[in-house]
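To whoever is on call:

I kicked off a structure prediction for a single chain this morning and the downstream step that reads the tokens threw a length-mismatch warning. I double-checked the sequence; it's 642 residues and nothing unusual in it as far as I can see. Pasting both halves so you can look.
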Amino acid sequence: MLRPVTSGSPSRQCPLAYSPPYLALRAVLRTGIFLLLVLLWGCSVPKGGADARLTDEKDSRAACEGIFMSQQKCEEAQAAYREFLLTWLGPEQASPYVSNAQDCTNYVEKCAEPSVQAYHHAARACMNLVVSEYPQARSHIELALKLQPEYLPARLLLAEVLHTEGKPAAALTQIEEVFAAHPYLARLHLRMSMLHMEQQDYARAARDLQSFLHVQPEAETVLLQLGRIQQRQQLWSEAEKTFQTLIDLAPDEPLAYFELGQVLEQQENFTRALSLYRSAAAQLGENRLEFEYLQAQLLLNLKNYAAAADVLQAALTQQDDTPTLSSIWPSIQLLYGYSLLRQGEYVEAVPELRAAAEGLEFNGLAWHWLGEAHEHQEQWYAAMAAFQQIDSEQQEYASALLHLAGLYHVVGYNQDASAALEALLEHGINTPSSPPSSQAGSSTPNPIQRSSIIYQKLGYLYLLQQNTLAAEDALLRGLELYPEDENLAYHLGLLYAVSGDHPAAMRYLEQVVRVQPEHAEALNNLAFIYAQSGKQLERAADMAQRALLLEQRAAYYDTLGWIYFKQERYPAALEQIQQAHLLQPDDVQILEHLGDVHAAMHHPELARAAYLEALHIQPDNNQLRLKLNLESRESAASCQEP
């Protein structure tokens, strides 16, 4: 029965660490090749040949010593050869030749029968394989097959060499030929299955294992491997039957329960999967915690955070009773802290997540969730300290950088924020963060799916630092990678509009409205730029009206009113700008425009009142002071007229 070992990392893979059965099978086949040779050799070597082979001791001793000297691995080769003699001759007949390391050289080398000579070469090839001398092994195999073309042990050894040389198809051909001659050798199905797996021919690998199970239906390891192949093929019903058969045969085998649970989850039979994990936790005392952990993971995937927290809390209360399983406690604490985090119990989540972060070797996920818990409590510096623990080798690094950029911005460290986003771009942000805990997307840091957003944020941060060139460069870099992204084009157009480069601004904003005709902000800003330039005012009015139909905002009313002002349609302009002022009474630009319209309509007192109100909000606005002084002089002049 396979015995699991608990793992400390929170993995959606089985928390029971084990070696893949096909690797174990390969090791068994390699170390057991002597027995297989003996079995097949019995079909081809004449009986009574042992006495004939034990002649001419002098020549055989020299030949055997020459083999060991050429290999330069005397002890390993002699030990292997001695074991081979014991298996071949039996302890009684072999004892005179294996009493010490040198006595094995008494093996007889020269015999007349080709079948026995072929056997000798196969024996040498087997020795070469034991000590990984593959060219020498191939040489002996070729000599054996030259003497006996149908010599089956040599073909099996040749398959081993071909497989080692990276030629699984050729190795498979050799084994199939052996099997065709000796179909009763059921174990060859296992070897063929392994080779088919390496060629990713899972259907044939499954058929090989099923053929073996037809002969030995209670082979637990083979059932486990067959079920995994069926999982890989997404043959869920067949895999479910296979793993259930394994549970019936080996009710104490934890891997069978784990694999069946995974199959049930794939079929979204969550109720039965939970029931299976509970049953395994109750039945398998040594592995109880692992199956409670699996229950909690499944509940978290189903976003049943309260139920998961109950299971995990109950598991944590048993910590003192099971000190030998200390490696799994940080993983349980991690999921428990996460379940509290998702329930909004941030204060309670912090100590659990911190304990998990300090107890796990690969703890990027724990630090990430700890940072989130501090963020929710607006503990900005504690959150930054948690995210800073995640290094570039961990899967959560990209998401951590994004969080850090936001946190730096919140506390006013805009230069650090832009540096974090630059590091994020350099690291590569199209790789989603997929931490090793749960399959549920909600339990992992959100994947960063569109890096264009990062370029927009970066441009904004550079603008806050009054670094217009860096902002322009960030947006242009983004647009080079995402030429069809209208948001990047919009922000770049806005940047050029603010910096006074109206031709460039119009070029990018035109691109936006061409791709997205209902982009209200782009329509409004493009209309305003046209109004400022005094060009295409009819088209500008049309765009402003379309923006207002999409959304009634103060800025849009102001834009339309300003276009009417440029067209000298003052009553219409006054109506629109007054509506903008009602919606946003503290906007300086709207107040200035309102003053300009009143001035154009010869309402000096109303114009002066609008300018004064704007200047009260923005006292250092020299343009408003100039207009106010000019309006005051014109008002005074009009009062002096007869």
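Update from on-call: the warning came from a stale cache, not from the record. Cleared it. Sanity check on the structure: The beta strands are 5-6, 16-17.
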